[in-house]
Write a structure and sequence with these properties.
This protein is an alpha/beta fold. The chain has 2 domains: 114 residues, 3-Layer(aba) Sandwich (Rossmann fold), CATH 3.40.50; 65 residues, 2-Layer Sandwich (Dna Ligase, domain 1). Helix content is 43%, strand content 16%. The chain has 8 helices and 9 strands. The protein has a 5-stranded parallel β-sheet with strand order 3-2-1-4-5, with helices on both faces. Strands 6-9-7-8 form a 4-stranded antiparallel β-sheet, with helices on one face. Strand 1, helix 1 and strand 2 form a beta-alpha-beta unit. Helix 5 packs across helix 6 and helix 7 packs across helix 8. The radius of gyration is 19 Å and the shape is elongated. The relative contact order is 0.12.
Amino acid sequence: MLVVGSGPIVIGQAAEFDYAGTEACLALKELGIDVVLLNNNPATIMTDETIADHVYLEPMTLETLEKIIIKERPDGMIGTLGGQTGLNLTLEAFRSGLLATYKVELLGSSIDAIQNGEDRERFRSLMNKLNEPVSDSYIVTNLDDAISYAEKIGFPVIVRPAYTLGGTGGGFAEDKEQLQAIVQSGLKLSPIQQVLVEQSINGW
């Protein structure tokens, strides 16, 4: 079983990814499963040689992942325990056809579930389908559309970039100047250059 870690993260943040990944590796080993780990953060507990059977401190890229799969031939992969880095690499592996080519089964959350949680348009559509109330929002891929929509619904607004679940690149905008800075950052950091501009309910 191949487990994808979270890679390097900001000190003091996201220790839960290391904990979850470590516990997953130990649980798999208890079941007698050979565990292969990819995580290029040597400061984590999970990269200790007692946690996984084969530890790869290598760049968390599709190229590295393919080399490991060719060498280790895992039957399955868990990519949902490594935070944003793990999720993005898992999606990349799926979209590239890598998992299908080497017959690696994705365990844990499905690709559909990951996309529903990370793609702002899909999440909003799912909430509407379930009749769950959500704030008025609009998906944008450029600054002009973001400004136009924010001026239409009024400030403050929240900017939520797609595929950055940790909140990276998003934030509250009280005015046009703040909106410009946040949207530009969000579009740059979103792997699909997409942000959601949403009505803020702060203070309601």
